[in-house]
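Appendix C: a fully annotated inverse folding record. The material below is reproduced so that readers can follow the format used throughout the book. The structure is listed first as tokens, followed by the designed sequence.
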């Protein structure tokens, strides 16, 4: 079939149809018809998309089993970083960094400045409580993208375990994303139900529990629009479109085959509603990782956050054969604590692997075009120190960061496991990552934690 050489397709194009009287839409993957003549930018001249994910895990690590002993590109995997073995070239580890927040210590909360560069503000939420003092790094980047080339969804917020700390409250204890500016902030709480996330991204409707056809018939509903578009595309784009639709169909089948969330007599779907200790955290994280990858592929959004477990999380990781809370293990500093940390690193590695296994328009994969910032609110649970926090960076943002990744150490510990020695400023890392999206961004954060000096050692 002859396709006009000047045929161009907006990346905003959506396949649309009606399902049960409800309007539904499916996003398209990036196609050649959306690119410039060289395939290096979008047809309008905008650069190819870069993506960002923040990942939070509560209760820290064991520094003597987490921090590599060698620095630079030849750093060696430790027992708690072993899950990244297959992806080591995409991983940068930053250790020994100082968190320069200035709020009074109230255990756990003050360390959340690592995600924003802003000290917390007081909260009247009850118990031990704090509120975000400024926008988080994911929202800073989402705003940059929105100003230049907005996506249908500004950013996506997901959560894995639902069980946080009942005595730790306030917005910085319950959410990983906060938008706006001090004095006018909007907190974006995570969604823990994969079905809800799927509907938001790909259905544009709220699926009723009892109607499987409404949940899973989106592709049938937009068939006419698919056929019309297919007739206008070249062979390569038709193949990419079909692969994209096959991925959505595969996800529909996977969701339909999941164990039932409750005893309602209908075909099952995973809603992540199990009790503490019985959550299928592996399955939930797998589906959320897939949904993020599909959202990036369709350019529905370019920013996501994953709150795996929150500040002082009292989740019981039953899949590590534990009947004790993660917070409790962190204070006991026992083998259960180590096992839980490895379990979390496996889930983060799984997110990275999912992106790595998902093709991108450039011929690479989504991990090549993504930056991931992962950390915890403290270094070690039993000490409550917010210095030497574990910081893991994944991806390289289309060659913006050094690749293969390195181990950057701001200052070596005085002895194994010491979490008091630190140097530099963790916000320097945030600014380095944000400048991948806006090279002219002057600074991030405020007060003592503010940075106008990006960490150049991790930049290519």
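Designed amino acids, in order:
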């Amino acid at each position: 079939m002859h396709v006009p050489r000047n045929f161009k397709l907006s990346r905003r194009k959506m396949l649309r149809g009606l399902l049960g009287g409800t309007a539904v839409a499916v996003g398209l993957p990036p196609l050649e018809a959306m690119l410039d003549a060289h395939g290096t930018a979008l047809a309008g001249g905008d650069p190819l998309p870069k993506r960002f994910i923040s990942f939070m895990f509560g209760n820290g690590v064991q520094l003597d089993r987490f921090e590599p002993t060698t620095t630079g590109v030849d750093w060696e995997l430790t027992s708690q970083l072993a899950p990244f073995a297959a992806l080591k070239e995409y991983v940068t580890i930053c250790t020994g960094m100082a968190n320069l927040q200035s709020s009074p210590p109230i255990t756990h909360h003050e360390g959340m400045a690592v995600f924003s560069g802003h000290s917390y503000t007081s909260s009247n939420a009850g118990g031990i409580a704090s509120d975000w003092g400024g926008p988080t790094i994911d929202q800073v980047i989402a705003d940059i993208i929105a100003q230049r080339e907005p996506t249908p969804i500004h950013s996506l917020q997901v959560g894995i375990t639902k069980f946080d700390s009942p005595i730790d409250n306030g917005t910085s204890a319950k959410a990983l994303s906060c938008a706006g500016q001090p004095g006018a902030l909007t907190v974006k709480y995570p969604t823990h139900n994969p079905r809800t996330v799927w509907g938001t991204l790909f259905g544009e409707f709220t699926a009723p529990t009892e109607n499987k056809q409404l949940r899973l018939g989106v592709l049938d509903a937009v068939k006419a629009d698919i056929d019309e578009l297919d007739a206008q595309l070249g062979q390569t784009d038709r193949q990419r479109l079909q692969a994209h639709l096959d991925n959505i169909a595969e996800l529909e089948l996977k969701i339909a085959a999941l164990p039932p969330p409750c005893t309602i007599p209908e075909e099952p779907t995973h809603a992540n509603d199990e009790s503490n200790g019985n959550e299928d955290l592996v399955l939930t994280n797998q589906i959320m990782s897939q949904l993020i990858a599909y959202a990036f592929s369709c350019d529905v959004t370019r920013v996501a956050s994953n709150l795996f477990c929150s500040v002082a999380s009292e989740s019981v990781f039953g899949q590590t054969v534990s009947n004790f809370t993660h917070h409790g293990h962190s204070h006991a500093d026992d083998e259960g604590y180590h096992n839980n940390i490895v379990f979390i690193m496996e889930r983060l590695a799984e997110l990275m692997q999912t992106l790595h296994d998902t093709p991108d328009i450039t011929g690479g994969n989504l991990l090549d075009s993504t930056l991931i910032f992962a950390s915890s609110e403290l270094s070690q649970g039993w000490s409550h120190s917010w210095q030497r926090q574990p910081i893991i960076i994944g991806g390289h943002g289309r060659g913006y960061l050094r690749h293969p990744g390195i181990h950057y150490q701001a200052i070596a510990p005085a002895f194994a496991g010491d979490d008091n020695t630190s140097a530099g400023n963790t916000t320097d890392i945030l600014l380095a990552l944000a400048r991948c999206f806006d090279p002219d961004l002057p600074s991030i954060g405020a007060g003592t934690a503010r940075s106008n000096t990006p960490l150049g050692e991790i930049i290519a």
